[in-house]
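S.,

Sequence below, as promised.
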Amino acid sequence: MASTSSPESTEYAFNNPPLHQALVMIFFIPVIIIIVFGNTTVIAAAYKEPRLRTQSYIIFTSLAVSDLCIGLIATPLELYSRVVQDEITCSVAKSGYFTVWVYVLFVVSMAHIVLITADRLLALKRPLRYVTFVTTQRVCIAIAVAWVGGISYGIFSLIESGNNKDDSLTQFCTGVSYKTVSARSFLLGSAGSIMIGGVILISLNIWILCIAVNHLRRIQPNLVNNDLKPQHPRPAWQAKGRQQFKAAKTTVLVVGMFCIGWFPTSIWFYLRVFVDISHVGQIILFELSFFIANLSSAVNPFIYCLKDGLFRHMNIYVWGTTFNVTTDPKDVIQFRTGSAREPVCIDEGRRLTK
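The prediction came back faster than expected:
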């Protein structure tokens, strides 16, 4: 159906089938709930526990804030623009107000993934300089730059969208792929950035994990001998090797899930440029790639709890106090003892009790 000249009587080329709307509700609403509750718990745990406010934990907590914004803002607005088709969501000039937040928070999350990778690399390659170089102030400045960069991108995009006088309908509403130079450049640039950046980040984190494994292998014989004599406490340098290995595994999981989650989106961008796909096929590919991207934000809290004992016990405490459930006294003792000034990194693997 073609659009008429009167905005009040605009008809669109494609009417959303009820099946599409139902599938969106069935698959995305549970993921949004998991994203919101999981990352809210992570943020609450960091707020309540001073030991979760060290440099590495601060980066992960800020990433949780970004994931929370994805669940609260970006994904609902994006889905609204896909499910509800009217003169606003189908307008090229106005639809950006709904879709831009996905790209804003992707930029913010990607910047945090880079910070996490750099933090692990410095901790392993420059352990003696790590404490003096990676300070809380510098970490906060880097996080602020990540957020300002993403938000600035969104503001400029909205300004450009507001100045756009094009009154044509979006591709999602018409089923027509716009092959303009600007559209192709944006899609190819975005796809290339996601793919190349993801490959580089995954490669760096695999290298980091290999370094941690080599450190652990060098101390493994002493670890075995020491485990045979439990009356002798484990030296600090041995515990540090195990801590660095566990921290590297956590980082690889978080970075890997982020990159894997967004790789289908880059493939979808390439297909939009080089392949003529039916309108129904476009909807299926878009929803599938967007769903996988949201999964990366949903699984992060589970990775934190699975690989980090302090996060795990604090999450138990947060949920227990929220729903008035009595927590195990041993858990309370475990996460309440210890020095708040002790320098730790994410999943350092240290004992929670003294």
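The two ends are 71 Å apart (CA to CA).

Coffee later?
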